[in-house]
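User: Hey, my collaborator sent me this sequence without any context and asked if I could get a structure. I don't really work with proteins. Can you help?
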Amino acid sequence: MASSTHTTEDVQLSIVQSSPNPVYELYPHRWYGLTLLFFLNLTNNLYWLTFAPVTEISANYLAVSDTAVTLLGTIFLIVFVIMSPCAGFMLDRWGLRKSLLFGAFLSALGGWIRYSGCLVNAVKGRYAIIIIGQIVCAVSNCIFLTAPTNFAMTWFSDGGRTTANMVGSVANPLGGAVAQILIPSVVTEESRLPLALILTASIATVTAIPVLFLRDKPPSYPSFSASQPPEKFGSGFKKLLTNWNFLVIWIAFTTIVGFFSAFLILMNDILSPYGYDETKSGIIGAVTILSGLVGAGISGPLIDKTKAYKTLIKSVTPVVGVGFFLLPFVVRENAYAEIAIVCSLIGFLSFSLLPVALEIGVECTFPVSANTSAAILWLGGQGGGVIFTIVMDQLRLPDDANRPRDMKRSLYFQGIVALVLSFTVLFYNSKNLRLEAETAVTKRNQMEKAETNDGNCQERETAGLRSDGKLKQGDRSQLPLPVNMCSDGYVVAEQELNPDMDYFRTKCVRNGKVSRDEMMFQVQKSDNPTEQLLVTFPNEKTVGVKYLKQICTKMVDQRVSRGIIVYQGTLTSAANKAIQSLNQGISDRGPDTFTYELDTFSESELLVNITEHQLVPHHTLLTDEEKKALLKRYRLKETQLPRIQITDPVARYYGLKRGQ
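Assistant: No problem. I've predicted the 3D structure and written it out in structure-token form, which is a compact way to encode the shape of the chain:
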């Protein structure tokens, strides 16, 4: 007997029903698009940390408080919280190219609005215009930050998606690292702040031009998942809110990204009370991010090769929480090296998680759009950044304290919360739904290729039938009895259950020959009408892959939970391998999953009902409740019960599975 239990999401059921093999192909243009997306994110994020590395100079030039300067960075996070759902919707509705064109235009426009604030003579007017420019730049940031996950899925196969997502996503914080080094070196005094604004606006404008030459999507899909139409943003968003595993990832992502953003924005304020100037603070920020680039550069290709999403995210996230917990103990005077080491550790591990979290957000929610899951994850990360920045800013000591404006309390808050919330990721326990769908398609394609080998298997004469297909003379024992194999619990007509020769001839014999198509029948369980059984009798004496696919399609269309194929002669080796291949990688799913099972029997196996043999004792299949009661009554463990081999004729008769 060969059996295969399929448990796939509804979208994956279309795999069996799909048309002949599509051609999946990768195109060189994907590297152009990925490079462009990298620089769009990098240059746009220069806007985010233009003022934070030179807080004191910016406050004096704009005639505002340090908190108001902090708001110029925080506004990026606030706008993202408000606009990120719109960014995901835009990418779904407009497509990649139009969305990035719009974002590039806003990025350049916002940069020049910021600079125009420096041309205003009234000091108070400068801040108002600059914050308007920051808001415009922040809107484009929503698009750029959400796009990498969509781009990776649209242009890359499963062998490069995580790396592509990594390259596009880490460019954003890399822009922050560049700003940490570039801005303090340019803005050495108040009069040079406008120069930094001209520089950032010019870079963003130049970067926007190549978007005109970007293609929206490749001529053909790179993978099966890319070929599937994504769910609409609204329905996908509702599913995310009820997906426990996604919410676990969302909490971890919000915690790590939120505190990382808050730490970068407030880094100068955190370190300056301990004697570290803006240049040293900028170097610490740059080292943190550059270490992260190394971590992301390692994790992206590693995950593409191993697909060990769950292992990495569960093992690394709590360590990041420990890193944040250590910060308040190392931030002190004359501890520059220790601070740099801990910050490097946080950066290295945080960045290694970034592409993995974005990809695993797609894996546990497929077929929800990658735009939707990425937008909601970044919504949490940036929203957490807003909240954590505000709370940490309010926890700083006043100006008249022993150490004025010290933020040690802020670091304790950050460390404790990050440590606790980072461990929630241990509750994540989802399968990689997108990968499983693609694996199923790959196996289906292998089955179709195997069809070319179907004609090489030896044929043999059917039990109870002549080689020309005519019915032999003889008694009832020469008729196959598949209904006896499945009558338990199914509603089967008496004539079907115990057919005589006349009934068989009337129903199944046409023009003196047996019509095996007429022998096919379908029944349902007496206690559960939705649980149906389909028994088929292929005309081919040698059953191959093509017939298996036809039956799978019929079962999916009619929602039949169990199927039995009774073949005359042999199964081809290709068909046997195909069934074994289908059985691999299939695992249990949630309550909305459709499950079906396919068994195959030779007619010769069904001529005798093995359970009615005088030497075979009576067997009864226990329910789960009955088995628990039995174990409890005799104080046994399940491993102490006598075993029956899954290949035993009785086990095959009842269709038993492991554990029953």
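In plain terms: Strands lie at 2-8, 509-510, 513-514, 521-524, 532-536, 542-543, 562-567, 570-571, 594-602. You can pass these tokens on to your collaborator as they are.
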